[in-house]
């Protein structure tokens, strides 16, 4: 039984080895290709001895074969798609010709049957009286027909001569006259059927001959524009408007290709001049073709669609040619100005066709945009590399922008601003980039690609400035950013901030004004920019991003200077709780004065304030915020340092009354000099109050009452004022100077627990 089932399976699909083998599709289908193949007999022979399992196996095999066949058919169609399309068009044309031939044969058959019926009816008229009358009528008609037949003969000869001499207007008039005579003869029966048929056939043949002459004239390159329009119009009058319109567009296409070949042969380089000449040639030809098309066929939608398709094809060919010969090389070389000028010329010529209903800008955008983006990327990369090279040798000294450069010759230059060498060059490169990218952004509607690129290179330049700070370790993975000359002095480091601030706050936005919308109050929006782009939030966000990059540099500056105060060069902490805890281990009364680290903080802030007042002229607010952030950075470090507070609150040696008084004095000192310098923020004031209260609570936790040890608040303020004057070199001890403010009386204690 098992053997029979195996044999049945073998007979159903050949055998199981055949099913699993790697036979080609052709080998599997051979059995179906023979001319004697009988499907019913095949299925019967294969399935009559099969059980259910074998039937399912055969079904899956046939499904697999069907899928493989469909895949093979799909590959065959794709491989021969062009030939398939060409064959389909030829079949369509052949079907049209066969249809015309069938109509012609039908007309000829009807005419033959009509003539036969007429002869049969005439033979039935044998009455003598009628014969006499018919003979008289025949004689009269014979004389009239003879005259018409003479005209027909003369007409044939005259029409032959007119066509031979290619006298188009006269030939068309003669054909029209012949058509009228044929209609009149048919209505009045003044011509025999054979003569009328001969006349109609002659008119049809000569009309076709004239149409062929006109088509040949249209296709001749030597045919002038006026003659071309006249020939196309004549062909349309002959009733072949579709052919006339197609031949018109083909003629312009051949002339355009010939002119392009001549232009390429006469140009040794493919720069802006070649692009301008080529653009003028292509779009003027399209405009002339559109004008002639409208003059010949009017506003017919069918012809308008053909014109648009033809114009799109020419625009695509032009875009590919310009891209291959001009834009590709310019983009590869990063020559954004050449790319911008070429595309601006093309956009100008293209816009002139919009009044004719030909919007070809999307065609150009599709082909030009990748090359433009490549050119933009190349320019931005060049700006980054040049800025990095200049930053490697910049001494970070500020000077006025020199005149004579391309950028300084524009109205965007601010000669009153001082920048370092690398910032001056960065600014000029960005200006040049935006000058060239402006027309591209307008023509190609890049939607802020250029502005985003400027933001990118500015962030890279800010990274360079951050790495110029001493000890900066940011972006060490990028080798470009590691080769930067370090700003050693505080003046040089402040100059880094000046570079970033002036670029982000004034120079770059002013350069970008040629791309940024000018606000909603402008009377005429820029062409190609919709009103919803005017003053949109994205532009304001772009400017805020520039400012955030400056804030990043400022925070790095503050962090770097705070770390210099808090840590030694060996990495040890200078601002620790020990300086306050150890004060209570001495038996002598300390000389009350701010701690050395806060004296250094005051000196540093004073120096930076002096430097900033000279460098940030007109931008005092930024200088104030800089001093405020630097002070906050130091104080916030104290507030957030867990080890500092753990030692003071829960350490083996907790904070005592003398250490609390010194800590209070240091904090009061910071508040007073920050307030006098006008950079005491509300946040800083609150943080200082909070950490003073925390220190008081730490002392209270030891069982001591701070109210019995701390002097009045006025004492701290007075000592801080004296320290500020002494450190500033303005100390004067006349009047109240004899009072020993450094020896507070315990009787003047005041409760600070409410703070």
Topology:
Layout: H1 2-13, H2 16-20, H3 25-33, H4 39-47, H5 52-79, H6 81-123, H7 128-164, H8 168-188, H9 193-219, H10 225-237, H11 241-266, H12 272-297, H13 301-333, H14 336-351, H15 361-391, E1 399-400, E2 418-419, H16 421-444, H17 449-467, H18 479-482, H19 490-512, H20 537-566, H21 578-581, H22 596-615, H23 620-640, H24 642-650, H25 657-676, H26 682-700, H27 713-728
Helix pairs in contact: 7-8, 7-9, 8-9, 9-10, 10-11, 11-12, 11-13, 12-13, 12-14, 13-14, 13-15, 14-15, 14-16, 15-16, 15-17, 16-17, 16-19, 17-19, 17-20, 19-20, 19-22, 20-23, 22-23, 23-26, 25-26, 25-27
Weakly predicted, low-confidence segments: 1-18, 120-145, 407-413, 474-481, 519-534, 733-755
Q: State Rg.
A: 49 Å
- What is the helical fraction, as a range of percent? over 70%
Distance between the first and last residues' Cα: 104 Å
Category from helices, strands and their pairing? mainly alpha
Order of helices and strands: HHHHHHHHHHHHHHHEEHHHHHHHHHHHH
Strand portion: under 5%
Largest sheet: 2 strands, antiparallel
Enumerate how many helices there are, as a single number. 27
Report mean pLDDT, rounded to a whole number: 77
Number of strands: 2
């Amino acid at each position: 039984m098992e053997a029979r089932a195996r044999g049945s399976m073998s007979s159903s699909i050949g055998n199981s080895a055949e099913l699993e083998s790697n036979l080609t599709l052709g080998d599997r289908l051979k059995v179906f290709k023979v001319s004697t193949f009988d499907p019913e007999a095949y299925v019967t022979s294969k399935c009559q001895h099969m059980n259910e399992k074998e039937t399912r196996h055969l079904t899956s095999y046939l499904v697999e074969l069907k899928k493989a066949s469909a895949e093979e058919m799909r590959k065959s169609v794709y491989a021969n798609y062009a030939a398939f399309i060409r064959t389909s068009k030829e079949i369509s044309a052949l079907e049209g010709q066969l249809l015309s031939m069938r109509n012609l044969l039908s007309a000829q058959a009807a005419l033959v049957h009509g003539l036969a019926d007429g002869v049969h009816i005439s033979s039935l008229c044998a009455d003598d009286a009628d014969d006499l009358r018919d003979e008289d009528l025949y004689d009269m008609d014979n004389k009239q027909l003879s005259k018409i037949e003479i005209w027909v003969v003369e007409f044939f000869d005259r029409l032959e001569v007119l066509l031979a001499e290619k006298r188009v207007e006269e030939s068309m008039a003669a054909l029209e006259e012949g058509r009228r005579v044929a209609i009149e003869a048919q209505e009045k029966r003044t011509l025999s059927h054979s003569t009328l048929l001969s006349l109609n056939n002659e008119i049809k043949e000569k009309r076709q001959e004239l149409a062929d002459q006109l088509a040949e004239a249209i296709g001749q390159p030597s045919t002038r524009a006026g003659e071309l329009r006249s020939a196309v119009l004549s062909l349309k009058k002959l009733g072949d408007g579709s052919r006339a319109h197609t031949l018109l567009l083909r003629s312009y296409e051949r002339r355009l290709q010939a002119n392009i070949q001549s232009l390429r042969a006469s140009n040794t380089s493919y720069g802006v001049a070649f692009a301008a000449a080529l653009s003028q040639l292509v779009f003027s030809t399209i405009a002339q073709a559109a004008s002639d098309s409208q003059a010949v066929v009017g506003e017919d939608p069918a012809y308008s669609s053909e014109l648009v398709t033809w114009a799109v094809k020419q625009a695509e060919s032009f875009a590919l040619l310009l891209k291959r010969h001009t834009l590709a090389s310019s983009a590869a070389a990063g020559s954004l100005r050449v790319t911008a000028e070429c595309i601006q010329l093309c956009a100008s010529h293209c816009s002139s066709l919009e009044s004719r209903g030909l919007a070809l800008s999307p065609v150009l955008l599709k082909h030009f945009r990748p090359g433009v983006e490549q050119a933009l990327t190349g320019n931005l990369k060049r700006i980054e590399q040049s800025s990095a090279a200049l930053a490697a040798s910049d001494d970070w000294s500020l000077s006025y922008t020199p005149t004579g450069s391309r950028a300084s010759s524009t109205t965007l230059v601010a000669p009153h601003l001082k920048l370092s060498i690398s910032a001056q060059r960065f600014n000029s490169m960005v200006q040049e980039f935006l000058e060239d990218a402006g027309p591209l952004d307008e023509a190609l509607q890049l939607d802020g690609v250029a502005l985003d690129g400027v933001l990118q290179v500015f962030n890279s330049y800010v990274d360079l400035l951050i790495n110029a700070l001493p000890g900066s370790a940011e972006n060490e993975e990028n080798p470009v950013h590691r080769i930067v000359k370090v700003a050693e002095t505080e003046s040089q480091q402040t100059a880094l901030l000046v570079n970033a601030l002036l670029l982000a706050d004034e120079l770059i936005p002013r350069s970008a004004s040629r791309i940024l919308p000018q606000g909603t109050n402008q009377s005429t929006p820029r062409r190609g920019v919709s009103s919803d782009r005017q003053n949109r939030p994205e532009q304001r966000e772009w400017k805020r991003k520039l400012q955030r990059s400056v804030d990043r540099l400022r925070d790095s500056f503050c962090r770097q200077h705070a770390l210099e105060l808090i840590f030694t060069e060996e990495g040890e902490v200078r601002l620790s709780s020990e300086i306050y805890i150890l004060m209570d281990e001495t038996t002598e009364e300390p000389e009350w004065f701010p701690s050395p680290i806060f004296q250094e903080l005051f000196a540093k802030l004073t120096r930076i304030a002096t430097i900033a007042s000279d460098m940030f002229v007109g931008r005092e607010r930024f200088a104030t915020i800089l001093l405020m952030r630097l002070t906050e950075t130091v104080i916030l470090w104290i507030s957030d340092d867990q080890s500092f507070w753990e030692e003071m609150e829960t350490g083996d040696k907790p904070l005592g009354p003398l250490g609390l008084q010194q800590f209070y004095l240091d904090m009061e000192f910071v508040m007073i000099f920050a307030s006098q310098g006008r950079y005491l923020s509300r946040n800083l004031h609150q943080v200082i109050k909070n950490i003073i209260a925390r220190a008081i609570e730490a002392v209270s936790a030891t069982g001591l009452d701070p109210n019995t040890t701390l002097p009045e608040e006025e004492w701290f303020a007075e000592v801080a004022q004296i320290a500020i004057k002494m450190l500033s070199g303005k100390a004067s001890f006349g009047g109240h100077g004899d009072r020993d403010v450094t020896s507070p009386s315990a009787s003047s204690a005041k409760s600070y627990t409410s703070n």
